[in-house]
Each structure stands twice: as structure tokens, then as C-alpha cells.
Amino acid sequence: MALTETSAHPTRYEGLTAPPYAQTGNIAGATAEEWVRAAIKPRGAPSLMGGPFERVHVFWLAGMSCDGCSIAVLGATAPAVESLLTGTIPGVPLLLLHHTALQVEAGEAYMEPMRKAAEGTLGEAYVVVYEGSIANEDKLEAGYWSAIGEEVSASGEKVQVPSAIWLRRLAPKAAAVMAIGTCATWGGVPAAINNATGSMSVGDWLGPQYRSALGLPVVNIPGCAPIGDNFTETVAVTLLFLQGIGPAPELDELGRPAWLFGETVHRGCTRAGYYEEGTFAKKFGDKECLVELGCWGPVVQCNITSRGAINHMGGCMNVGGSCIGCTMPGFPDKFTPFYKAPPGLLVSGTGSKLLGSFVRPLRLITQRKLNREVRWDRGGNGMPGGWGADLSTSTFDRVTDKFYDFLRHRGAHGTTKKAG
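^ thats the sequence. predicted structure below, dont judge the formating
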């Protein structure tokens, strides 16, 4: 298959009808809704706190995806997916998740709720979550890139319907559309230079003027893979807004949750202090700042260093890896070649090294001073025990100690001035 740039086919999937309904592949003999209801029945009905929605359907669509986003979300803990699916979070309605890998139903039994939502006959609110980038199905004369379900043409031929077309059908009536992962938010790896699919983001596919039925633009949660907690937390915040309990989620100019993507990787990184002192790792495994090894953390907006990958543990820089910018719209093309020092390091790194050549010795002087008990200095006997610390003080040490104490006590009064 190849794209035909000269001729578009946006109406190719119009006029199709659903095939006959059949309960196929469901050996459990129960729908996902019945399963969830049975699971939460012992706990009682979910706490609605006066909200208008008792439950909300979530249609999870997948395009050019590796399924890493689904796996990341299943590992979320704050809140966990189980909490959203069983209605145990106060104020958040019960979620009925329609996911191709997690669903009990198959075939038309799986497709029926999605068809009703597109037709406006579902009778309940729904949210669309899209994983993976969107291949430009409009430019294909035949075939498809990624599809969900099939429909029947006027000639009786069965046609696979692309997930991108389902998004276009569902988006206008959705309470919210959420793009999860960098492929869905910015196009990601499938949209890299020379790709054959014409892949793009959810926002590019729906257009900049898109607003959901309740007035929300596309909500973007980037990452490759994204932090699962970032997604489930955004879902909970969005649903509380739909319930009228909480404010609208604060999104930045790119549709990202502002409270999650407002800071850079570098500001939360445990290695940031080394950058300030101008000391950089020479090879992976070193403890110092990784910028010279190709880390883009000082400019990349992501909370991986502060939140971790799963349950506040792990994460690229936390386990010795460098940031390659996977949450940013320019990824991957604008960050290649990977593991090469960013161009800005020529200026910022040199400045950091110059400043660090003064800062490091000053901090060592202060550290030596503070690593001694007052009693040791007054008694002149050094440090008790045989730990091997250098007990001697040079004339330079004594002079700097006096000057340090003068600065520390300046402006103080009473016993505070005499302390130490």
C-alpha cells in the first residue's frame, strides 16, 4: 500500500452498514458490564456525590501502536485502573472500558456499544481514548493501516473500518477525547521522517478547532511509554469536572495537563546538582549529570524523575538512562542522533564548568567546617576514634573558618551569635 498524495478518499467509509449481530467468542457468557456489576455488588453502589453520571463508557481505540501505553496504564497505582473500573473513587463515575485486549466480548458484541455511540443512541456519556498515531487512511485507495471491526458495503462486501474513521465518528459526541502516548499526542515514531503511512496525532487528525460535546479540546498525555499515573490521574480529574464536582483540568497551550508537564526533567532530577557544579558523566554508569552523554532533560517537559515509572519507582534518569525527549512534539526527529550531547551544551555546559570550578572548592571548605563537632575545635584534640579522617587544620583552614563564622553570625544577637 502507498499513499496517493494527489487524490484523497475521505468518503470511502460512508454508507456502510453493520453486519448481523452475533454473540461470538464470549465463552464467559457475560458482558463486561455484567462482570463489573457483579464485581462491585458486594461493595454497594458507587458514591456519586450528586453528579449527573452514574457511569461513563470509555472507548479505547488503537492506531499505529506498540500497545506500550496500555501496559503502562495497567501498572498505574495512583489511582489504579481497578479503582476506576469499580467505582471506588468518591465522585468519579463507574467506568465501562471497551478495550480490544481487555474486553470479554468479541465480534459484533464488542462493536455494538461503539456503533450506538457513533449513532447517538448509546444513551450514556462516553469518552474516547486513542493510543498510537493515526495513519492517513483518507489517502489510501485500497486496504487500511489499522482497523477495528468490519461493516458491509452496498455491494455486500465486508469492509474493515480503520480506527481513525471510528475516531472521526465518535469524537463529535464524546464528552472528552484523550490522546495517550507520544504517538497519539504528537505522531511519535510512526510519524518520523520518511514514514509510509502519513501518520499524525489525534489533534492533527481532528483539526485545531475540535471541541468535545462538553467543550474540551483534545487532552494530551504524552510519553513513550507514558507514566500510567499521569493518565489515570488525568482521567479522574476530567471525570470529576464532567460530574460538576471539580474544575476543568488545567491544560497548557499544547493540551497537556499543566500540573504534570509544567516542569522540566532536569528540575526534578537527582543528578541536577552535578550539572550546577559543572561535573558530567563520562560513561553510562557514572553518578554525575548525563547531559554530555546526550541527555535533553534541561529542556524536556516531563515528570518522570519526580514521579517514577510505576509506583514512584524507576524512570529513565533515575536508573541511569539519559532523556531523549520522548514526551515532546519534536520527538523523534528533532532529538536525533540519540546519545549525542545537545548543541546547547556548548554554551550552558561551558558556563556550568566555569562556575563549578569556583563553587566546588567553596562547598568543600564549608563541608570540612561542618563535618567537625564544636567540641573537637575547642579542645584541640581532633576527632575521637580511628575513622581515618584528617584531624589537622592548616593556617588557611583556620583563617577561612574565622571568616566563615563571621559571615554566619553577622546580624545575629544574643546566644545565637555565640553559638558554635
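Confidence is low (pLDDT under 50) at residues 1-7.
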